[in-house]
Amino acid sequence: MLYSCSPKSKEIENNDTSNISSPSLNYDEQTTQQVVDHHLEAFIGNDLEEVMADYTEESVLITPDRTYSGLAEIRENFVNAYAALPKDSTTVSVIKNMAVKEVGYIIWEADAPNFDFKNCSDSFIVHDGKIILQTFMGVVTPK
To answer: H or E stretch including 69?
Structure first.
């Protein structure tokens, strides 16, 4: 049996959405790609200050273990990530890197001394040249 998230036609008829307006978003795809590229380069280089330059105090990072809000919490996440992914002994492979409108998307893997990172994915929402929302998911296995 097939199911859909789309409302039934009668539900559409009864819901007048003509008065709903969408907010204007300040983004462009080129800027989104530039921010994602900068973030990747800084992340792979273990450059904490450059990584943090991509965020604002209003930014949020969602991971399977915790949600980090604001610069101090996001910084804490990357300090821990760099401990697991030491620059001189980790190989990072970027499998996909793309941007569509304000959404950046990467798929990556890493071989670190104490962990394997497989099927990792980050999504980024970028506005005004900053990451306002990021999600991370991946399979991290101790060696």
So the answer is: strand 67-69
Residues found in the chain: 143
Residues 70, 82 contacting (CB under 8 angstroms): no
Per-10-residue mean pLDDT for the chain, 143 residues long? 44 46 66 97 96 98 97 97 95 97 97 97 96 97 96
Scanning the structure block, which residue is given the tokens 């080129």?
30
Tell me the pTM: 0.80
Angle at 116 between CA 112 and CA 118, to 5 degrees: 125
CA distances from 93 to 13, 58, 75, 90, 114 (A): 49, 30, 23, 10, 17
